[in-house]
Amino acid sequence: MDLPVMPPVRPMLAKSAATIPPGMQYEAKWDGFRAIVFRDGAEIELGSRTGKPLTRYFPELTGALLEQLPARCVLDGEIVIARGGGLDFDALLERIHPADSRVRHLAEVTPASLIAFDLLALGDVSLLDTPQSERRAALTDALRDARAPLFTAPVTHDLDVARGWFEQFEGAGLDGVIAKPPGLPYRQGERVMVKVKHERTADCVVAGLRPHKSGPVVGSLLLGLYDAGGRLQHVGVCASFPMRRRQELMAELEPLRMPDATGHPWQDWADAEAQAAGRLPGGPSRWTGKKDLSWTALRPERVVEVAYDHMQGDRFRHTAQFRRWRPDRTPESCTYDQLEEPVRYDLARVLGGEPEAR
């Protein structure tokens, strides 16, 4: 390849905000794999947010992009899989598989799409220093004839429309709104955009902990919810504590520590069949690789209120945030019934390209 912007590119990032700021360009926040696409004639490469190649995992995309993209370009976007009218992140995770035969089978049964939202180079010209509004116009023009599986992300400059998207699009599997200053150049690896995500709270059972990599303090709390059959399912972790708080938590939870997992609801965590039957911590994963997933069992007697953005199936999509202990709640009362379900919204209406508003 010989492009004006060469890999690796560090994607421009966003910082969190509680409300949608005025005077911005607004887009939906897609829940998929961030990807920088490099195309130079017959060559094409998909790079992940960390710079690792994604090309081999999405053969159906590379063929479509070679047909539709300008002959020489670099664009920023999100790889997603749409099923049942919404985004399916679990299906996307399955695409990262070492076996080529499996990759090609999944490319047929769960084909991916690319949502393009920024243009970094076109022909021999780098657009990194070009204002956001001009890059958006160039992207729209370059992809004016795009068709599935390539889409241009809908955009608006109307704050009220963005607020409506924030409420409606979640039902299609999207997880918020991104706001971009119209005059912003593309600043690699910097958090210069704004993301506004949904935040909800849930009361969960603390059923275990993982130690911090730095020593004998809490790294994360393992969270559980009871399903309709009365089984405690592992739904995620709560982390991101200051070091002093990690030390305090270790002392607070010491009375609940079990000598081993015998008799614990998750005592079979290492058993593959048990992993398949329910949500347990410590299971094998292509993503965690050799990462130490060992954990300390705690008697499931304490309840914590955590904040989360949205669910991925039956678990939290991202790390939950500690809010407070709930001594007034019993562990048995911590069920899936408390979780708020967003109103369904057909993804096709999102990708239909609602007209830009100014």
Automatic annotation (TrEMBL):
Keywords: Ligase. It is an enzyme of class 6 (ligase). It catalyses: ATP + (deoxyribonucleotide)n-3'-hydroxyl + 5'-phospho-(deoxyribonucleotide)m = (deoxyribonucleotide)n+m + AMP + diphosphate. Residues 216-329 form the DNA ligase ATP-dependent C-terminal domain. Its EC number is 6.5.1.1. It comes from the Bacteria. One of its GO terms (molecular function) is DNA ligase (ATP) activity. The keyword Ligase applies. InterPro entries: Adenylation_LigC-like, ATP-dep_DNA_ligase, DNA_ligase_ATP-dep_C, DNA_ligase_ATP-dep_cent, DNA_ligase_ATP-dep_CS, NA-bd_OB-fold, OBF_LigC-like. GO terms for biological process: DNA recombination; DNA repair. Coiled coil: none annotated. Residues 11-197 form the ATP-dependent DNA ligase family profile domain. Pfam families: DNA_ligase_A_C, DNA_ligase_A_M. The keyword Phosphoprotein does not apply. Belongs to the ATP-dependent DNA ligase family. This is DNA ligase (ATP). It comes from Streptomyces luteoverticillatus (Streptoverticillium luteoverticillatus).
